[in-house]
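Run: sequence + acarbose derived pentasaccharide -> complex structure.
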Amino acid sequence: VEWAGLFHDQGPLYDSNPEPSATQAVTLTLRTYKGDITSANIKYYDSADSQFHWVAMHWAANDATGIYDLWQGTIPASASEKYYRFQINDGSSTAWLNAAGTTSSEPTAGDFFIIPGFKTPVWMKNGVMYQIFPDRFYDGDTSNDVTNGQYTYAGCATEQHAWGSAVAANVSGCNTAVFFGGDLQGIIDKLGYIKNTLGADILYLNPIFESPTDHKYDTEDYYTVDPAFGSNALLQTLIGDIHSTGNGRKGYLILDGVFNHTGDTNQWFDKYHWWSTNGAYESQSSPWYGYYDFQQWPNSYSTFFGIGSMPKLDYGATGSAVREQIYGSSTSVMQTYLKSPYGIDGWRLDAAQYLDAGGGNGSDATNHQIMQEMRTAVKSVNANADIVGEFWGDASSWLDDGKEWDGAMNYNGFTQPVSEWICGVDEGGNSAAIPTSQFDSWLRGTRADLPGDVQQVMTNFLGSHDTSRFATRCGGDIWKTYLALIFQMTYVGTPTIYYGDEYGMQGGADPDNRRSFDWSQATTTDAAVALTQKLIGIRNAYPALRTGSFMTLLTDDTNHLYAYGRFDASNRIAVALNNDSVTHTVTVPVSQLSVTNGSTLTDLLSGIQYTVSNGNVVVSVQGHYGAILAQ
Ligand code: ARE
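>> structure
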């Protein structure tokens, strides 16, 4: 069997029904070189009977070039989850194909998923996300700025910093009491930049609820927008403006849900007696005593990472007060903001892996049970809401059965490989260069862990509020940002721009990765911003880049070149990336995308047109740049 001819994924040309209901059969298409094989079978595992089943495939057609045969077979409809792989025979040898790749012996992992009834949000698949750390984006209302010494929290007096100044620890050495004045009014004022100039349509905000720190991951009151950021009424205004089409496309809002722990100033805990005298820290007969896990009351309690200002919530058993409070009841935190008069579109779950009962730290059945209940609650309020979990490794245990999250922050399958391939360092800045072939297999492997529609909503970001800035990690070469942006906007998953990454904002580790936004750079006279705008426009114009197939076309370790296809019934797009510092001529084998000789491909970045000959287009790509060749 000629392995190079084999292809299948869950894109629209190869899978009749990527998100089937329980009553919809799924017809799968397998590509082989013409005349290469004698038979092919789908072998699938059905969780209903815990057995493998075989479906013989039949020859269905040739592709447009006549180079390939297309074989088809149908997996019958049923409600149960299934996993499939292909067995391919040419009379003398057998090959196996699944999402992990091609092998000569039968694989034991990496099968494609079918999860009847499971869907990820259409808007998340098709959107581009912009992440904002609210204190640092834009100060739209100076009257609510936190001032010097306005209050003291855990020995830290607040300090007001001038926009543009360094994000250093303040005079008392406290790096979480440094306020720049950014707020919701600022985001409202700048929505035109996000939606119109850039063309992004999903906003993800780091925490906005009342809390004494600048980052607000230690919530004091989940039901109140922090006064330094605005008010609950202003949040409603912001949501209305995001949802309106006034500044471009209809937009969506995802809030940061910090539900593993609260702050120690939360009324439920009330370590500093800011509220009353009946928080769990203050009284064992507190109505919220059971919300936390005390080894020895009051000073020894479970926390996030040993940080005393972040006491862990105790989720108890199904129906517990904490479960009802956070997601279960109609007045729970999560349901409140999903419903009118707010109507947010999703939650990002902070430290999601750790939610647990007692002092437990997740990674067990209780965490998964909590996540299942949470999904049910969220979807009962808004079936189109998105749930994105924070997890830094392989998140498949929350994503592979359609019962918990829709997607996850894609450190594992995007941020890390991109950093190692383009910057030669890992997220922590340690030397870790990988060649193109390893980059490609890393991407394939991490995609294979996940159902296809989950892959499409994984949030793909170059950096976050928890990593160094991409531009800094990458040595400050803006061309590497260009290359990364081209990859990000043409890869599988929801592109997510951490505010400022679109102009190559610099910054080291937390807290330096949270600098105030430099508005002088936020125009299309800045080449990186102009490129971001162009790339988002391209992504928005071509569904193939969002929900199409992904096919590797070329990996060249010597010259650091990579090419891949994104395609559906309407468009075939070949992306060529040059990760070297010098210009290279790239021969892109577009016949693999069934693009015929003599047809014309246009580079959507340069406007240059190319004619396909001998199955290839030959493109000159400058160092740390790319070409997006569309038919
Ligand atoms: C503050 C200071 C830091 C200081 C720290 C400890 O800023 O300089 O080192 O305190 O004293 C929030 C704030 C942080 C704050 C922190 C504690 O944003 O600024 O730090 O609270 O007060 C792990 C977790 C993951 C977590 C990351 C940071 O698994 O959940 O660490 N990310 C979320 C948010 C953070 C937030 C919190 C959680 C807490 O996104 O912003 O911090 O609510 C490997 C591991 C991961 C690990 C990762 C990074 O990959 O596998 O599990 O993530 O490394 O360490």
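>> summary
The two ends are 30 Å apart (CA to CA). The chain is about 20% helix and 25% strand.
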